[in-house]
Design goal:
The complex is a heterodimer of chains A (243) and B (479). Chain A is α+β, with helices and mostly antiparallel strands. Chain A has helices spanning 22-28, 78-94, 109-116, 152-160, 195-199, 220-223; strands at residues 6-9, 12-15, 52-55, 58-61, 72-74, 133-134, 140-143, 166-169, 176-179, 205-207. The chains are: A alpha+beta (243), B alpha+beta (479).
């Protein structure tokens, strides 16, 4: 075992590089912490809280919390996973996530986490919000029904595409993604090659006219659950039951 | 409830069909059957809520209308969307994969209906004890037959999985083509069970034929009547379940129109709306709403095509046509025999396709000049299915019209129920016998009530007896 600073994650001692967040150190050690708004290469945002862990007994977002030598982190515990499952259910019910006709099905991180956490049907009441679709751009579609406000597109457009096409408007339950033109995506400089589109973890931002070209069985999470094989009790839903 | 004057009988729910149904029998002042109505009491509104969605979602979204023959909706929507992307001239691999998917679903749907839903009536008799007149009763008395039915359905579903990715609600057909070919491993797995399924299909046709011929005198008077028929046929007049032109024939077999291009269906077919049903009543414009109603499905297809292009099914078709004197069969219960002829045809086409190397081709998708409208027709297991979409410049659906086979069979089912009610209603109560016979007549059409109203839920039947003043005097339900 190499020398250097370490911390404990679920009973395992793992190395850290000064400046790393908990999730970065865990990823480097090959340990998966569930996440949605976090994407390597984008500035940590800490909004979805799915990566919540207990660091020295305190709940923190692993994507923004710095790893420090000697700290004790709990991630894959019944208590923490219960919180994550509730957060995921809240995301499912506050949008209109109809996986059956969504091009992202099988490649969707929210859906994949739903399977990982065995959410067969949310226990919370569906909100069925009235949201619109911006199909104005010739090559890109925004479906607000599926947006989980993770801000990945905001960060990718700003930091990788250097465009700032996307941003937030409104507060609380009225918060939503908006485009820089203020009205329609077609009036922005968004382009079909933008990395912002690939950054979307769900089916909210899609390239147009790409519908189901990848067959069932060859999609990202068709064979291996998100984050690899989770502990046995948490995968009762088989691939056959995918929507 | 008792009332003076005429009365109404309601059978609710109708069992062993797909969806929710209700029958109302309206009595006149003298206590005779005045009219009978078969209502579908579900409402969904798919045509409305897909508005605003991008067109490439249609093949996977609209198939959610149904869990029994979603492949029909999947393929019909895909064919309509092909036209929107200018990709209607599919590659051989794409067209043959879609056809294999379609024959697989026809095979599983027909097997499901015959063995699971209809066979209890045919094996045990219409009036037999309802407590054992179901698929479990068949399993107890005829275990080999029940097993065959289950395995035949499974075979069709395996074909769907190999072509669409999943047994139910797959994604195989995409705008302008298909998203996978058939691997050699998949082909060999399906070939391994082919001979057994062909043998079972031949046996199933024999059961249906023998039953029909043994009871032809009774069945000719049971909910039967002459009618117009509509179906797709190939350019040479052959039965074609996936593609072709529209043909309509009258009760004598005389052609009303032939080889009508799907895009012009509105020039030939219109839909009547009646206040008491969520289902519309399609009719042939040339004959008007009174006389233009028609039947669709196996009875119509076997009756109206010139021939079937597979030898075993064609031999059966010839016997079928001989029994009806060369004319379209007026016998409602002959739907079962015709359905089994199509089951046999499907397995023969599956055989043909599995031996075709085009299924291993790599050229899967074509595109051409974009259009703002797409119209397509397929022959679903239950009959002719129309999908019609218009899209805006932003690729969103702005109009959808779906005419499903059960909707086309709406008027015929009403007539069948009325005929049976006249024959079997005795007095002012709904007897078990009446309930049974009405259900048997409806079931012959293999109606899918979920599709017909684009509706949701399980499928019980209710029957109500209503007097001339509109009061319900008896009611019976089953489900």
């Amino acid at each position: 075992m190499s020398e250097g600073p370490r911390f404990t994650l679920d009973g395992r001692e793992i190395p850290l590089v000064p400046g790393q967040t908990v999730i970065e150190a865990a990823d480097a050690a090959g340990i998966y912490i569930p996440r949605l708004c976090h994407k390597p290469g984008l500035e940590p945002f800490g909004s979805c809280r799915v990566c919540t862990v207990k660091a020295n007994g305190r709940s923190v977002a692993a994507c923004t919390y710095p790893a420090s030598p000697g700290m004790i982190v709990e991630s894959d515990t019944e208590e923490v996973n219960a919180h994550r499952k509730l957060l995921l259910e809240m995301l499912f019910v506050e949008g209109n996530h109809f996986c059956m006709s969504c091009e992202k099905s099988g490649n969707c991180e929210l859906q994949a986490l739903g399977y990982r956490f065995a959410i067969s049907a949310p226990q919370l009441e569906f909100q069925f919000p009235v949201r619109d679709v911006d199909a104005s751009h010739p090559d890109i579609l925004i479906d607000h029904n599926r947006c989980i406000l993770c801000a990945r597109c905001v960060r990718a457009s700003r930091d990788l595409d250097k465009k700032e096409v996307f941003g937030f408007v409104g507060r609380g339950p009225h918060k939503r993604i908006a485009v820089s033109s203020g009205t329609r995506l077609r009036d922005t400089d968004a382009d079909v090659t933008d990395q912002a589109i690939d950054a979307c973890p769900v089916g909210a931002l899609l390239r147009k006219r790409v519908g189901f070209a990848v067959p069932v069985g060859r999609r990202l999470y068709d064979k291996v659950p998100i984050g690899g094989v989770p502990p046995a009790p948490e995968v009762p839903v088989s691939e056959e039951k995918r929507a | 409830m008792q009332a003076s004057g005429g009365k109404t009988i309601t059978i609710e729910p109708v069992t062993r069909v797909e969806g929710h149904g209700k029958v109302t029998i309206l009595m006149d002042e003298s206590g005779h059957v005045a009219r009978a109505r078969f209502h579908v009491v579900e409402f969904r509104g798919f045509e409305r809520f897909i508005q605003g969605r991008p067109y490439w979602e249609m093949p996977v979204a609209v198939q959610r209308l149904c869990g029994i023959c979603p492949v029909s909706h999947h393929l019909c929507a895909a064919k309509a969307v092909d036209r929107i992307v200018g990709g209607e001239n599919l590659t051989p691999t794409a067209e043959k994969m879609r056809r294999l998917m379609h024959y697989g679903q026809t095979y599983q749907s027909h097997a499901l209906h015959f063995f699971h839903l209809a066979s209890p009536d045919l094996l045990f008799g219409f009036g037999s004890d309802v407590a054992s007149r179901h698929v479990l009763g068949v399993a107890a008395m005829h275990p080999e037959l029940a097993r065959q039915g289950i395995l035949m359905r499974k075979y069709g579903q395996e074909i769907i999985k190999a072509t669409a990715g999943k047994k139910v609600h797959g994604t195989g057909a995409i705008p302008g083509g298909i998203n996978k070919n058939l691997s050699l491993a998949e082909r060999d797995e399906l070939l391994a069970d082919l001979d057994q399924n062909r043998a079972w299909s031949l046996a199933a046709v024999k059961i249906a034929r023998d039953y029909t011929l043994a009871h032809i005198d009774t069945l000719a008077g049971f909910g039967s009547f002459p009618s117009n028929h509509v179906c797709l046929v190939r350019q040479d007049g052959a039965m074609d379940l996936y593609d072709g032109g529209l043909r309509a024939v009258d009760a004598e077999g005389q052609v009303i129109f032939d080889h009508v291009a799907p895009e012009t269906y509105l020039d030939h077919i219109a839909e009547d709306v009646r206040p008491w049903s969520y289902m519309k009543f399609p009719f042939l414009k040339a004959l008007g709403p009174e006389n233009g109603w028609y039947r669709v499905g196996p009875l119509s297809r076997v009756s109206a095509c010139d021939f079937i292009d597979t030898p075993l099914a064609e031999a059966e078709r010839k016997v079928f046509k001989e029994v009806s004197g060369g004319k379209p069969s007026p016998v409602t219960m002959a739907y079962h025999w015709a359905r089994m002829i199509e089951l046999l045809h499907s397995v023969e086409k599956i055989d043909e396709l599995l031996h075709d190397p085009d299924l291993q081709g790599e050229d899967l998708v074509v595109k051409g000049t974009r259009r703002s409208e797409g119209i397509a027709i397929v022959e679903a297991p239950r009959g002719t299915l129309f999908h019609h979409y218009r899209v805006n410049d932003d690729d969103q659906v702005v109009m959808a019209n779906l005419i499903v086979s059960t909707t086309s069979n709406n008027e015929p089912m009403n007539r069948a129920v009325e005929s049976v009610a006249r024959q079997y209603l005795d007095g002012q109560t709904i007897t078990e016998g009446l309930l049974n016979h009405i259900e048997v007549a409806i079931r012959a059409y293999d109606p899918c009530l979920s599709c017909a109203t684009h509706a949701l839920g399980q499928m019980p039947l209710a029957v109500e007896l209503v007097d001339a003043s509109g009061a319900v005097i008896d009611r019976r339900t089953r489900g």
